[in-house]
């Protein structure tokens, strides 16, 4: 077995998945904060746009609006730099800088017994769970595809879906910065012949994925006057359609709806529903997509009697 075959084996990709999962924890934690900073910057820019205020309200903005804009700009400029690479990871309780041997995927959490080495504050079990989940998914993809380079491509898709699921569960937001590149990457991969999905299948998969949930959204809003889901769900399903073809859309939506409903019922019974009494749909869409990837679309369609 050469080095490439070893890397692309279930053990090799499983280990890679643990490392990627460690990075995904950073992505999940920092991406919403980075988005919120950008939103506040957009607010400050809009408040300082006197022409826009004049067009909307038909008069010059009050002095308080300009003052608020300057205050926001000053506050934002005073914040420390924040990105996926910097600053270095620290304990949110005491500020202890996480050393390299305290950041080994899965192992460090077990050795530290889930606590900060400096202050003893608890470290969420979700960190090793995301690492373990990512490693398991990478290993499963390697087992399904075999030692082929395209396994790395599909592992990249799995990594993005894990991150999106965790972010959506925490914030009910599916960032465009992740859903849209995933969509375009699926179309490019189909066009380049890197997947078994044809370009027409990928294109119509993206269209069907977006329009199916878009239609449900507007039908629900017209009937109830409320919004039943966010636009991020449309884009996520469009991305899954681009990777898996239009034929995968209905199985993904059906499985996501059934599992999401069951989880919602359990959470309602146990008092776990958040304010507004809803459950994010993105993690279940991602889960349905992962199931189709690992089981294989032909088997899924045959199971449903649609082959």
**Oligomer category:** single chain
Count the strands?
0
Instruction: Please report the number of helical segments.
Output: 13
Helix content: 55-70%
Task: Report the uncertain regions.
Answer: none
Q: What distance separates the N and C termini?
A: 37 Å
What is the residue-averaged pLDDT?
Answer: 92
Strand content: under 5%
Rg (CA only)? 22 Å
Q: Could you spell the SSE succession in H and E letters?
A: HHHHHHHHHHHHH
Largest sheet: none
Structural class, by secondary structure, is mainly alpha
The coarse silhouette is globular
Could you characterize the architecture of this molecule?
- There is one protein chain.
- The protein is 69% helix and 0% strand.
- With 307 residues, the protein is mainly α.
- Helix 10 packs parallel to helix 12.
- The longest helix is centred in the first third of the chain and has 38 residues, at 10-47.
- The radius of gyration is 22 Å and the shape is globular.
Secondary-structure map with pairings?
Blueprint: H1 3-7, H2 10-47, H3 50-57, H4 63-77, H5 107-111, H6 126-145, H7 150-171, H8 176-192, H9 199-224, H10 231-244, H11 249-270, H12 282-295, H13 297-303
Helix pairs in contact: 2-4, 2-6, 2-7, 6-7, 7-12, 8-9, 8-10, 9-10, 10-12, 11-12
């Amino acid at each position: 077995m050469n080095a490439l075959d070893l890397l692309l084996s279930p053990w090799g990709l499983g280990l890679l998945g643990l490392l990627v999962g460690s990075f995904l924890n950073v992505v999940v934690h920092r991406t919403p904060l980075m988005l919120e900073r950008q939103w506040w910057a957009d607010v400050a820019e809009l408040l300082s746009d006197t022409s826009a205020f004049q067009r909307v309200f038909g008069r010059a903005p009050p002095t308080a609006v300009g003052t608020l804009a300057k205050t926001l700009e000053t506050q934002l400029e005073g914040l420390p730099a924040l990105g996926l690479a910097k600053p270095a990871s620290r304990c949110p309780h005491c500020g202890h800088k996480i050393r390299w041997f305290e950041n080994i995927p899965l192992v460090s959490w077990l050795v530290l017994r889930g606590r900060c080495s400096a202050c003893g504050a608890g470290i969420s079990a979700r960190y090793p769970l995301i690492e373990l989940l990512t490693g398991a998914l990478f290993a499963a993809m390697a087992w399904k595809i075999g030692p082929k380079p395209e396994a790395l491509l599909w592992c990249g898709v799995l990594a993005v879906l894990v991150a999106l699921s965790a972010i959506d569960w925490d914030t009910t937001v599916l960032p465009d910065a992740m859903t849209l590149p995933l969509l375009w990457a699926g179309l490019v991969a189909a066009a380049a012949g890197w997947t078994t999905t044809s370009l027409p299948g990928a294109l119509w998969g993206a269209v069907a994925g977006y329009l199916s949930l878009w239609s449900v959204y507007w039908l629900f809003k017209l009937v109830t006057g409320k919004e039943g889901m966010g636009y991020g769900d449309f884009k996520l399903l469009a991305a899954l359609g681009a990777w898996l073809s239009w034929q995968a859309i209905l199985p993904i939506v059906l499985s996501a709806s059934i599992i999401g409903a069951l989880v919602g019922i359990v959470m309602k019974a146990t008092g776990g529903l958040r304010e507004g009494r809803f459950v994010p749909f993105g993690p279940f869409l991602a889960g349905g997509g992962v199931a189709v990837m690992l089981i294989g679309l032909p088997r899924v369609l045959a199971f449903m009697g649609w082959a």
